[in-house]
User: Which sequence fits this backbone?
């Protein structure tokens, strides 16, 4: 009679099983091939009776099950003496290296538990694996054959993996995080934001952007347009699209209304970028194509802009009453004020906005971390952490391999698909960062108004909190959603 049954514990995502939180009519319409299998409850051990009457306790693993160490470990703890692996490797018919990789991964289950393994595949590499993980005999791809081997009817020894669980990966991850933390700490100690440099020293320079009134208006409009596009996307997600990036319209708005103007403003800022130095009684403004020298004695005031667009900036007022023809955008106007005052200039700071713009800019500049706060890192590279695995999974499901779409439709189609996945994650993270930034700036504004002396410390704490929420909170949330499903 029936002794028991085993249901595959780890069905393949989006082809055999769809998490409940993701399933719905829309997904079924987009991915009509998705299955409805439900995962099993975990490892099961069955008695296998030999011809001489002896029984061998075997642990069945089906397909993706042998990629996960936890099932083999649980089976060993339940008293299993051997592993029987069943798999359909037809996916790898055109690429046998995939089936060979699957076999090598499965052999690690024998290494971890010291159990022999009989592996049977429909058209892949059937094999007999000894307790040390060595493949003693195997078939070729698509070969029909009968394999024979001796299975020891004995209890396997207790290994560290069976005793402690899957600790190797966690220990390696902890070690890598520790090493990365040390390297980041050393890099943080070496790197200094240009705005914080002691500008009164001859060799120091303040990074800034010199903008004529026309280019300032252009950059301001581009920045406002990019922010407005992001706001439109946020409103659409709340009222129309839902809290997921799931339509090409969203990506088109993101590329045309957010990304394009932001990149255009960045390009203008790079072209107009320069440095300021105080040397020999002169303020030297250096750009790629021009050099401006102003005697420090002729500078009367630094007048901050009423609206900090396209960034915190100011005009130089001269003793004659005129203003310099170009305005300047920099992270910390007080750094230039200190340098000019140290050089003997009778300069004052005129803050016509809210009275605290200079303090706000100085605190913001002091809290910046170049590697972590750059837009390229946050919205260009970091989205790839989630976009690349998702894109690769999509390629395997839809086209049978990482480069399946490339082989079928060409490089342009493959790159377009990758760009869509990247843009989706970049958009989501940009909206998340905008929400975090609004909350942080509200907290900074309250601290600046109520406790100006502690505003810099509050800013420092809030900046690190939003970095942690962005770089750690978003991936943790995603993992919880996936594992919870």
Assistant:
């Amino acid at each position: 009679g029936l002794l028991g049954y085993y249901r595959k514990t780890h069905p393949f995502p989006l082809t055999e099983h769809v998490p409940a939180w993701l399933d719905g009519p829309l997904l079924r319409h987009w991915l009509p091939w998705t299955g409805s299998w439900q995962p099993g409850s975990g490892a099961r051990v069955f008695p296998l009776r030999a011809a001489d009457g002896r029984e061998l306790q075997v642990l069945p693993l089906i397909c993706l099950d042998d990629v996960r160490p936890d099932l083999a470990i649980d089976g060993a703890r339940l008293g299993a003496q051997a592993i029987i692996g069943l798999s359909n490797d037809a996916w790898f018919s055109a690429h046998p290296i995939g089936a060979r990789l699957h076999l090598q991964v499965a052999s690690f289950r024998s290494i971890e538990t010291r159990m022999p393994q009989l592996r049977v595949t429909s058209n892949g590499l059937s094999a007999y694996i000894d307790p040390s993980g060595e493949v003693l005999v195997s078939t070729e791809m698509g070969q029909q054959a009968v394999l024979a081997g001796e299975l020891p009817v004995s209890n396997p020894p207790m290994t560290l993996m069976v005793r402690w669980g899957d600790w190797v990966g966690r220990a390696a991850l902890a070690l890598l995080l520790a090493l990365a933390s040390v390297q980041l700490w050393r890099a943080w100690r070496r790197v200094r934001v240009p705005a914080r440099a002691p500008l009164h020293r001859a060799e120091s320079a303040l990074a800034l952007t010199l903008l004529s009134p026309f280019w300032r208006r252009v950059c301001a409009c581009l920045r406002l347009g990019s922010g407005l596009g992001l706001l439109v996307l946020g409103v659409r997600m709340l009222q129309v699209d839902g809290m997921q990036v799931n339509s090409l319209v969203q990506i088109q708005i993101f590329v045309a209304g957010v990304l394009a103007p932001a990149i255009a403003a960045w390009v203008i800022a790079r072209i107009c970028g320069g440095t300021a130095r105080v040397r020999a009684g002169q303020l030297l403004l250096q750009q790629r194509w021009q050099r401006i020298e102003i005697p420090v004695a002729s500078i009367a005031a630094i007048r901050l802009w009423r609206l900090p667009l396209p960034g915190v900036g100011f005009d130089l007022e001269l003793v004659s009453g005129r203003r310099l023809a170009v305005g300047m955008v920099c992270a910390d106007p007080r750094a230039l004020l200190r340098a000019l005052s140290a050089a003997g200039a009778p300069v004052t700071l005129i803050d016509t906005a809210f009275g605290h713009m200079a303090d706000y800019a100085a605190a913001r500049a002091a809290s910046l971390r170049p590697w972590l706060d750059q837009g390229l890192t946050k919205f260009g590279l970091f989205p790839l952490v989630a976009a690349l695995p998702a894109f690769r999974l999509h390629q395997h499901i839809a086209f049978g391999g990482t480069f399946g779409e490339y082989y079928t439709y060409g490089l342009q189609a493959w790159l377009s698909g990758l760009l869509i996945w990247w843009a989706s994650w970049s958009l989501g993270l940009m909206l998340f960062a905008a929400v975090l930034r609004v909350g942080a700036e509200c907290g900074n504004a309250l601290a600046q108004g109520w406790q100006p002396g502690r505003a810099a410390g509050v800013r420092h704490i809030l900046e690190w909190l939003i970095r942690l929420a962005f770089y750690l909170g978003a991936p943790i949330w995603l993992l919880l959603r996936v594992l919870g499903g």
User: Anything to note?
Assistant: Residues 191-203 have pLDDT under 50 and may be disordered. The chain is about 50% helix and 15% strand. The two ends are 35 Å apart (CA to CA).
